[in-house]
Amino acid sequence: MIPYGRHEITQKDIDEVVKVLHSDFLTQGPMVPRFEQAVVSYCGAKYGVAVNSGTSALHIACLSLGLGVGDILWTTPNTFVASANCGRYCGASIDFVDIDPDTWNISTEALREKLIVARKNNCLPKILVSVHFAGQPPEQEKIWELSQEFGFNIIEDASHAIGASRNDEQVGSCRWSDITIFSFHPVKIITTAEGGMALTNDEDLSLRMQMLRTHGITRNIEQMEFEPPGSWYYEQIELGFNYRMTDIQAALGISQLARIDEYILKRNSIANEYISSLSGMPLRLPVVLEGNMSAFHLFVIRIDLEKIKLSYGDVFDKLKKSGINVNLHYMSVHLQPYYKNLGFSAGMFPEAEQYAKEAITLPLYPILEQHDQDYVIKTLSKILV
Ligand SMILES: *Cc1c(COP(=O)(O)O)cnc(C)c1O
Questions:
Q1: 89-107 pLDDT per residue, tens
Q2: Would you say the CB of residue 213 lies under 6 angstroms from ligand 1?
């Protein structure tokens, strides 16, 4: 099977991990702050808080912005469930904004219209989770303008997009958001096995997220309620979690980060090869907005079902039977049973729903072999006659 995504582990990655295994600290040692510093300086943000998953990063990002019961979080239906679940962890209610039919990111226009209605009905969101779908940045500067006009906070879910840029601004700089989060799951751009990070330029948010990842505990005198009676003293200020990343993972992350620019170039070159070879077939190709450099975490096509005799399921199964492990990113989140039980139903976000009836993710990862990509292209052209 050719997978749709795959990590690369080099001998150097292994050596760096083994060094930590021989060292004094497997966790809470020097590697986590070093990894945070490396990511932050790569992205051009001020603070980074490494955690054990992208989902944990979303959770503490929401909490640090004060999301709670009675608040509303908005995101796109075309995302992994975690982009919405983080709001539910905090007791907030969720709503969605439909996608742009070309970029498959949140539609800035739909967002503006929904905000105007929400202001009238007194149900504006406290937080918008803006997802960089497939590695492509949304129109973040326009979304930021809307946040100033309507008064909400922004978390960029850039799980797909470390290494991407928009108008020469690196994703993760947080220029147009309060917090940006990354995931380092093995299918993502770089990996720590499990892992994630929250970036921000706001010192208070970073301190709060640091506390939340480790039980709500601080050893920082400035954050304490009482005068420390001695050097043993620490305080638990609020209810936090154990969301820590290990030094073993951070060492892998540092080693992987050194190859990120190479990875992004390779992903773009594979994507361009797909784009030139597949054009002319009965399908829609990804559209990258001017000014955007996509990280191309995913390569998604939309099958033009009106032009072929097969159903979506037929195309999907034929690709699988040919040894190509395609995927659907994503079934609309609002149609998951959990969200249906909260009152969502089919028809609410038509662009996302239509997208999910046509979208197929093809294999794309830096170590994808040329002959494997050729095979994918040839197989697809045979199926889509
Ligand atoms: C992978 C992913 C997450 C969650 O990341 P984990 O590290 O697996 O917890 C969140 N949002 C999106 C869009 C993702 O793709």
A1: 999 999 999 999 999 999 9
A2: no
Helical segments of the chain, H only: 11-21, 31-43, 54-64, 82-89, 108-120, 140-150, 203-213, 247-257, 260-278, 312-321, 337-340, 350-356, 370-383
**Maximum Cα interatomic distance, the chain, rounded to a whole number of Å:** 77
Among the atoms of ligand 1, which is closest to the Cα of residue 194?
7
Give the position, in ligand 1's atom list, of the atom nearest the Cα of 56. Answer: 9
Reduce the DSSP state of residue 107 to 3 states and report it: coil
- Summarised one tens digit per residue, pLDDT across range 41-56 is 999 999 999 999 999 9
Tokens representing residue 316 in the block: 């999907």
Confidence of residue 385 (pLDDT cuts 50, 70, 90): confident
φ/ψ (deg, to 5) at 72: -125, 135
Distance 79 CA to ligand 1 centre (A): 9
- CA proximity to 289, closest of 108, 43, 81: 108
Is residue 274 within 8 Å of residue 362, measured between CB atoms?
A: yes
pTM to 2 decimal places: 0.98
Ligand 1 within 6 A of CB of 59: no
Mutate to test the pocket of ligand 1, among 60, 105, 131, 157 (most ligand atoms within 8 A of CB): 157
